[in-house]
Amino acid sequence: MLDFYWLEFTTKDQPGLFWVVLYTNWCNFRCYGCHNRTLAGWDYNTWPTNKWSPQIIQIDPNKYHKKLNLEEVELALKNDFLDIVILCGWEFLIHNIKEIEETINRIKQINPSLKVRIDTNWSFPEKIKYLKEKDLVNWFAMDIKWPYWNQKYYPQLSQVIWLPEQILPKLTTKLLESIRLVDGMEYSLFRTVYYPIIQDKPYFEEIKNFTKQLKSPHSFNLFQEV
Ligand code: SF4
Fold it and tell me: pLDDT of 20-78, one tens digit each?
């Protein structure tokens, strides 16, 4: 079983259903305004605008956060009222696929009636494919934070996330592949944050127009400062 650091119960994603969200550690992205950077494994002092290289500090999440013990996790999963478990990262799919598979199988042993959702930043389509083929996950929630497919928006993208510009074309392929795999699964959903540092309306229009072709719903969420 992978290590989990936080858990929370919620009904807000899908009214009428009761969920438990389990959070692991690490993320491969570096996003402006990330809510849980220390658990994602990094931090920054100030986030520069229009630059590709903010001053990133690497952090060991275990120095800042205490793991939940297995009994706590098992007790939460055994709750008779639960319908769904959400496995959340900070990027859940960053972990080794065999450990992910073992974790989901263990969860299903503990509570066979639970449906499984994974929240992902989309950068691991090969793992999404593997989990789908093994029928281990019922659906995914995926962030489409930027219109990667249109190079015109790369300058704005550099305000929202730090990624070396040269890897963006490769990432676009992964994004489109992940969307293709996830779209149309029961309850799959796509989300985009309205980053206030992006003042360019066409940037969001581009995402809106792109997502109109999808079968699964897409929503814009307000940015929440922490
Ligand atoms: S993808 Fe999510 S968890 Fe990862 S850095 Fe961005 S906001 Fe944080």
Answer: 999 999 999 988 888 889 999 999 887 776 666 678 889 999 999 999 999 999 999 99
Of the candidates 69, 47, 44, the one whose C-alpha atom is nearest the C-alpha of residue 58 is 44
**Ligand 1 pocket, residue 90 CB under 6 Å:** yes
pTM of structure: 0.93
Ligand 1 in contact with 145 (CB < 6 A)?
A: no
For residue 181, pLDDT over 90 is answered with: yes
- State if residue 183 touches ligand 1 by the CB under 6 angstroms criterion: no
Which has the closest alpha carbon to 158: 31, 40, 33?
Answer: 31
Map out the domains of the chain with their CATH numbers.
6-222 (3.20.20.70)
